[in-house]
């Protein structure tokens, strides 16, 4: 008889390593990251590990640089004129900021979904899903595309809702459906990582919960990072949480990162506690 | 499409743990009784050790419920369920303690002549076990009817306890030199009577979870 | 007492509201009235000369009645096509550069140049092409005329396409970039298709504007009273024909000037109608 005594013994991590695909792959290590818009520094000194098979939430008050941080992970930050980043972001051991690495290739491995659902308005539901394949990969057969469309739409739980409107405009769907379509479009090219920048802020509560359920089912196959200004969402839908806050110079720093249950039950830093209990920002 | 599948799964997992806890309490109670009857010290120790598991489960369930309240923003019945889980697990844990008391008494009384009241104790343990099983079932199935039925069984335990007290007092009058031993039997009966009360509390929690109202199911 | 004052003030406010509304509606109707008078006048004077001959024959010698403006219709169409061929790629490319890629000093210079080009009076364009092309290289010719028209069209196309491209939500570009799409593909396969109807409208706008230009053609394509399909020779055009007929002393030619005006307006109207029809169908299909 070996009695179980402590909380830690009893509750395994949200997803045991064995459950996730290919163990240590698809993990991200951020070291000494700083990001700038021209002369303005938005974030600084960010060290963060993002594990595979779990959902990592980035939370913090407005202007803390959480969107900037997530956009640095697939080099979308530098798309804005004058913006650049320093430090390193390593995916499976390779620094994506190594001179000579191609941001276009990196973005194929690290997909992104944005705040506002943005299906391509001139494309149908079907064409939206395969947009990434059609734009950037060698042409495939109709049957292959059909298969990708069905698989992607099924994995975002949209197939049953749209299988009869595959050839309607993607923009004809409801907001929540459009956002799931955008997630389907992002995973159709089989990235390793899926970044979501406030994906539910334009959606109603029911659509929001559907997206959260969906992320829960996707985390086995993708490393998921979600930025949210809704800390309840971070609490509900993530396994790990990182809390960012801007200092008096409006530069965002990482205050605390850890398992979501610990952040929300017994945060280490008093600023985290103030923020999640609504006493700050 | 049903939403919050993850939350529903977590709740189901919690209730699964409550079921395990109930089974463990019942198992310990039966082991204690068996040890009492057969004067098997090993079995009594086993029952005592089993209570460690019950206690650990209580902490695990309550920690997990706190996490769910902190992270999942439950409302309405979900919230009543999570809040009531503390009451349910507290009461189960107390029932487990009483099983341990019975086991300890079995160890102490081992080697002495078996009490004549064992059959009444046996009946009480039977009823208590039925109540534990029924209360946990009612909780897991959100079954108010079942809860009321189980709570009503407490009366049987009480009657049996009263009858036993009468018998024991009679016995002490006849054999004052054995009063010390007889009082232990009284204690044991008292523990079992308390188990019935704890299960009644769980049944009240079931009604609160389902209907949102506080009821008194004791007569 | 107080309530009475309140009611009076309310009545006054209503009266002044009504007055200002009346004033605005009146002025707005004036612009409609002007258009109606012009169109009505053109129809009244030009309709009688619209015969089959008018579209199929070339002008008769001075003083003779009859004949048509066939050579001018051909010239206008031919020169517009060539001008479009020159101006559309330059204009569209300039706009794409400015919106999608341009930042820094060179982009500012390009934007400023387009701005200036748009302000240039058309006669100045005519003089410029005359001095550079007509005098030294081509002589009076359709090519020179087309070049002048193209120079007028470029800033119109560039500016309208620029405005339209700016309307494309940045989210679409980011969505495409985030799929690992190179920038040029984002522009070509995502941004441009999204606003293609708008781009076509901008192009049509510039063609309509060029179709009505007279001054630069006077100095470049000169005009021609005979059929000529050869762009290297002087070429007739409808505005030129209208100008020549209008300044002539003959009543028949005056009537023909009105009729030509009518045809020119009709061509422009048909062109913009066709674009609307095509873009609507294109939109419908993409839905």
Describe this structure in words.
The complex is a heterotrimer of chains A (281), B (219) and C (287). Chain A is of the alpha/beta class. Helix content of chain A is 34%, strand content 23%. Chain A has twelve helices and ten strands. In chain A, strands 6-7-8-3-9-10 form a six-stranded mixed β-sheet, with helices on both faces. In chain A, strands 2-1-4-5 form a four-stranded antiparallel β-sheet, with helices on one face. The longest helix of chain A is centred in the middle third of the chain and has 14 residues, at 142-155. The N and C termini of chain A lie far apart (50 Å). With 219 residues, chain B is an all-alpha fold. Chain B has one domain (5-211): Phosphate transport system protein phou homolog 2, domain 2 (Methane Monooxygenase Hydroxylase, Chain G, domain 1, Up-down Bundle), CATH 1.20.58.220. Chain B has seven helices and no strands. Chain B has helices at 5-38, 41-72, 76-109, 118-140, 144-152, 154-174, 179-211. In chain B, α1 packs antiparallel against α2 (41-72). The longest helix of chain B is centred in the N-terminal third of the chain and has 34 residues, at 5-38. Chain C has helices at 2-46, 52-56, 70-101, 105-119, 122-138, 142-167, 170-178, 183-194, 196-211, 215-218, 238-247, 251-286. In chain C, α4 (105-119) crosses α6 (142-167). The mean pLDDT of chain C is 89. Chain C has two domains: 2-49; 55-286, MetI-like fold (Orthogonal Bundle). The termini of chain C are far apart. Helix content of chain C is 79%, strand content 0%. Chain C has twelve helices and no strands. Chain C is mainly alpha-helical and 287 residues long. Classes of the chains: A alpha/beta (281), B mainly alpha (219), C mainly alpha (287). Chains in contact: A-B, A-C. Chain A binds chain C through residues 74, 76, 79, 81, 104-109, 111-112, 114, 116, 118-123, 131-132, 135-136, 168-169, 172, 182, 185-186, 189, and chain C through 103, 169, 171-172, 174-182, 185, 189-190, 193-194, 196, 286-287.
């Amino acid at each position: 008889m070996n009695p179980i005594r402590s909380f830690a013994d009893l509750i395994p991590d949200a997803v045991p390593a064995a459950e996730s695909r290919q163990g240590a792959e698809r993990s991200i290590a951020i070291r000494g990251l700083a990001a700038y818009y021209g002369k303005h520094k938005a974030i600084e000194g960010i060290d963060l590990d993002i594990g595979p098979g779990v959902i990592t939430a980035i939370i913090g008050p407005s202007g803390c640089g959480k969107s900037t941080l997530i956009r640095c992970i697939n080099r979308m930050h530098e798309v804005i004129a004058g913006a650049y980043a320093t430090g390193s972001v390593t995916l499976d051991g390779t620094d994506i900021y190594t001179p000579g690495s191609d941001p276009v290739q990196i973005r194929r491995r690290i997909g992104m979904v944005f705040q506002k659902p943005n299906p391509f308005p001139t494309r149908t539901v079907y064409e939206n899903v395969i947009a990434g394949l059609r734009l950037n990969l060698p042409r495939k057969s109709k049957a292959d595309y059909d298969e990708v469309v069905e698989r992607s739409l099924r994995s975002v739980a949209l197939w049953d809702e749209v299988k009869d409107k595959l050839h309607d405009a993607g923009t004809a769907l409801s907001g929540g459906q459009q956002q799931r379509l955008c997630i389907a479009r992002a995973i159709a090219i089989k990235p390793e990582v899926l970044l979501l920048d406030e994906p539910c802020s334009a959606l109603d509560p029911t659509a929001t919960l559907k997206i959260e359920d969906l992320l829960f089912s996707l985390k086995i196959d993708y490393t998921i990072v979600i930025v949210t200004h809704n800390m309840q969402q971070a609490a509900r839908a993530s396994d790990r949480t990182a809390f960012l806050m801007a200092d008096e110079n409006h530069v965002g720093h990482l205050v605390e990162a850890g398992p979501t249950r610990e952040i929300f039950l017994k945060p280490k830093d008093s600023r985290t506690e103030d923020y999640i209990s609504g006493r700050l920002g | 499409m049903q939403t919050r599948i993850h939350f529903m799964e977590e709740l189901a997992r919690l209730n699964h743990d409550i079921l395990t806890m109930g089974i463990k309490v019942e198992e310990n109670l039966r082991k204690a009784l068996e040890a009492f009857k057969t004067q098997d010290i090993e079995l009594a120790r086993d029952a005592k050790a089993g209570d460690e598991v019950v206690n650990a489960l209580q902490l695990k369930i309550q920690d997990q419920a706190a996490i769910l309240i902190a992270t999942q923003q439950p409302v309405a019945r979900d919230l009543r369920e999570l809040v009531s889980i503390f009451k349910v697990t507290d009461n189960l844990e107390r029932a487990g303690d009483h099983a341990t008391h019975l086991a300890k008494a079995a160890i102490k009384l081992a080697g002495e002549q078996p009490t004549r009241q064992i059959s009444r104790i046996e009946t009480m343990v039977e009823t208590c076990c039925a109540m534990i099983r029924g209360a946990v079932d009612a909780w897991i199935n959100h079954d108010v009817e079942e809860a009321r039925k189980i709570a009503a069984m407490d009366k049987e335990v009480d009657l049996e306890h009263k009858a036993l007290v009468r018998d024991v007092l009679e016995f002490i009058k006849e054999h004052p030199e054995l009063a010390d031993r007889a009082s232990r039997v009284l204690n044991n009966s008292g523990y079992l009577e308390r188990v019935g009360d704890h299960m009644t509390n769980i049944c009240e929690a079931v009604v609160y979870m389902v209907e949102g109202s506080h009821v008194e199911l004791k007569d | 007492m107080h309530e009475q004052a309140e009611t009076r003030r309310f009545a006054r406010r209503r009266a002044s509201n009504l007055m200002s509304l009346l004033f605005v509606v009146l002025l707005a109707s004036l612009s409609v009235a002007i258009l109606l008078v012009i169109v009505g006048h053109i129809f009244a004077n030009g309709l009688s000369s619209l015969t089959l001959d008018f579209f199929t024959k070339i002008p008769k010698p001075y003083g003779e009645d009859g004949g048509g403006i066939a050579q001018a219709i051909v010239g206008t169409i031919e020169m517009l096509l060539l001008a479009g061929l020159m101006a559309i790629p330059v204009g569209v490319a300039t706009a794409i550069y400015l919106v999608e890629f341009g930042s820094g000093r060179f982009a500012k210079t390009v934007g400023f140049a387009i701005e200036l080009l748009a302000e240039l009076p058309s006669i100045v364009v005519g003089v410029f092409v005359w001095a550079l092309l007509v005098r030294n290289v081509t002589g009076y010719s359709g090519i020179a005329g087309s070049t002048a028209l193209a120079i007028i069209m470029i800033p119109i196309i560039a500016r309208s396409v620029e405005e339209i491209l700016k309307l494309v939500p940045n989210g679409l570009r980011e969505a495409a970039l985030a799929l690992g799409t190179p920038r040029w593909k984002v522009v070509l396969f995502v941004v441009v298709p999204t606003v293609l109807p708008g781009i076509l409208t901008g192009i049509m706008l510039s063609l309509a504007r060029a179709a009505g230009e007279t001054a630069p053609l006077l100095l470049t394509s000169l005009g021609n009273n005979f059929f000529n399909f050869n762009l290297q020779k002087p070429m007739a055009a409808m505005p030129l024909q209208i100008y020549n007929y209008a300044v002539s002393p003959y009543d028949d030619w005056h009537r023909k000037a009105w009729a030509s005006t009518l045809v020119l307006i009709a061509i422009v109207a048909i062109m913009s109608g066709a674009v609307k029809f095509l873009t609507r169908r294109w939109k419908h299909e993409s839905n």
